Amino acid sequence: MIFKAEHLKEYLRRILQNAGLSETDGGTVADSLVGANLRGVDSHGVTRLSIYVKRLKLGVVNPKPNIRVVAESDATLLIDGDDGMGQVVGKRAMELGMEKARRNGAVYIGVKKSTHFGTGAYFVQQGVKENLITYAMSNAPSTMAPWGGIQPYIGTNPYAFGIPARKYNPIILDMATSVVARGKIITAAQEGKPIPEGWAIDKEGRPTTDAQSALEGSVLPFGGPKGYAISLMIDIMSGVLTGAGFGPHINNIYGDYDKPQNVGHFFQLIDISRFMPVDLFKQRVDQMIEEIKSSPKAAGVNEIFVPGEIEYNIERKRLAEGIPLTREVYEDIKQVGEACGVHIEDFQDKSIGA
């Protein structure tokens, strides 16, 4: 099934509004989810709709949070998200942070009492549009064992960096600290598909290609002890420093249906103009991109990419041709819509095959 991005966004927005969000906040979450699908990150796209709506209706996510600054200085902000949707809380944190970064040159933003915030790319893209180098990171429920262990303690804690360029798309790095985002294992389990070797271990610590066994066990960090160490540092910055939950003290989005998650985030924004003229910086980034892409290629390699380039290529294609959804995801979001009095057929575009 194929949908135009704007139709899919409106479908999700109406469902989320029915579930209690304001029109604006519903649009923010819909924009984040559909944006992930546009970039080919389907594991963090509309497939998350059902769990978001479920937690909103159970009352463990606050549909109308009082997002507030609880501590600040010239270069720091600590924000209480009041258990709101992570995308809504994160966007507000970025808005406050961008204002402070422009005024003071840089800012560090800690967030507590939030929830799953979708993709980090969604936030760093906001910053680079304002000529701010932007870092975004978040902790997550414990699904990854410390290196050498078998019991999950830390999350697949993601981080994203955004760097603006002049004539090229921004460089956007957005990745989990596991070999693969856990959302891809969830998607495989939903579709009854195996996962590649090296992604996860089962609850006994044995390598597994069964997606469900992987979800019951532990995903593996990228680069072995290196990924584990980076994930730990992200948890300290996002959880320990902010006063949010950390490690196993973050409630599971898919299991703890009687408690808010208390996820933590951490953002850093840097005003490029405090170091050099913005246009000069962008020219230098362009030069780096061109030199990397023109460097000698290994045998069998057709093109060298910079971070985020593949996702921009997918986005261009999907904006033109539509966003493909698997039958399983289509049926899932259709059921969510029907339960909210919103019918997916009203948003399908027959001209592109949906």
UniProtKB/TrEMBL annotation:
Superkingdom classification of source = Bacteria
Q: Which UniProt keywords apply?
A: Oxidoreductase
Q: Does the keyword Oxidoreductase apply?
A: yes
**Entry keyword Oxidoreductase:** yes
Give a single Pfam family match. Ldh_2
Q: InterPro entries, from UniProt? A: Mal/L-sulf/L-lact_DH-like_ah, Mal/L-sulf/L-lact_DH-like_NADP, Mal/L-sulfo/L-lacto_DH-like_sf, Malate/L-lactate_DH-like
GO molecular function, a single term:
oxidoreductase activity
Family label: Belongs to the LDH2/MDH2 oxidoreductase family.
Query: What is the name attached to this protein's record?
Result: Lactate dehydrogenase
* Source organism of the structure: Paenibacillus naphthalenovorans
